[in-house]
Amino acid sequence: MRKQEDDNWEGRALSFLLTATVLMMAIPTPYLRAFLSLIIFALLVKYHGEDPKIGTLKGSVTASILAFAMTLPLLLFSQLEFSGFDPAFLLSMIPFHLSVAVWEEVVYRGYPLLRFSRTSLLASSLAFSLIHAFNPGFGLQAFLGVFVAGLALGLMRREWGLGPAMSMHFSWNILMEHLWGYPTSGLRGPSVFVSKLVGSDILTGGDFGPEASIIVMIEFFSLFLAFLSILQRDRLP
Q: Within 13 A of 49's CA, how many CA atoms are on the CB side?
């Protein structure tokens, strides 16, 4: 009976991923995507009577610190130049990046991983990677990099909650693009520093940026393995 329930849930999760992706792509702004995704998530959680597993403030702060720490090794391979500091601009970017982190985490980690399974984790990570297919510089490296990040965020959502996964996602994007000035998923905006990774596309990630870099892949895969060990430990009798 339990296996049948899990199979039914995986089917619902896959249907949700497809339907929600089409819906979100039809909505022009990330702010409306974030609002609607949260409403839909809240209604579905209530309908199923499930614990949304939001997580704690401590977990969210820890995730943000972790995101910052993971950006630092890139500086060892970068040419770094201070370009200026505009606090008003940086503050103005918070709502945009927060809305992106909210809708992407709710759609790709929130509902699909409400009941965790390997199938749902793989499917959500695959869908998460493929929605970046139209970003500048997307290719096999970028696909693998975002897929591995999705796996790590999925296990973070499982172990720490949805809030920390959102916090990690938000902090990573705003730090990479607007603090250090790297291309983030192929996009680049004004930043405090201008940083350029030096080396081959395998090291730099090419036009897509460091998320397609072998350095970041190793970091996110290491994070995935760390959470996997916690998951396996928790399942021990």
A: 0
Claim: this prediction has a pTM higher than 0.85? yes
Structural domain of residue 73, as residue ranges? 2-235
Tally the domains of the chain.
1
Neighbours of 8 (CB within 10 A): 11
Which position has the token pair 């899990």? Answer: 6
Cα 57 to Cα 54: distance, rounded to the nearest angstrom: 9
Q: pLDDT tens track of the chain, all 237 residues?
A: 444 455 578 888 899 999 999 999 999 999 999 999 999 999 999 998 999 999 999 999 999 999 999 999 999 999 989 887 777 777 888 999 999 999 999 999 999 999 999 999 999 999 999 999 999 999 999 999 999 999 999 999 999 999 999 999 999 999 999 999 999 999 988 888 988 889 999 999 999 999 999 999 999 999 999 999 988 887 655
Q: What is the spatial distance between Cα 26 and Cα 38, in angstroms, rounded to a whole number? A: 16
Distance CA 163, CA 157 (A): 8
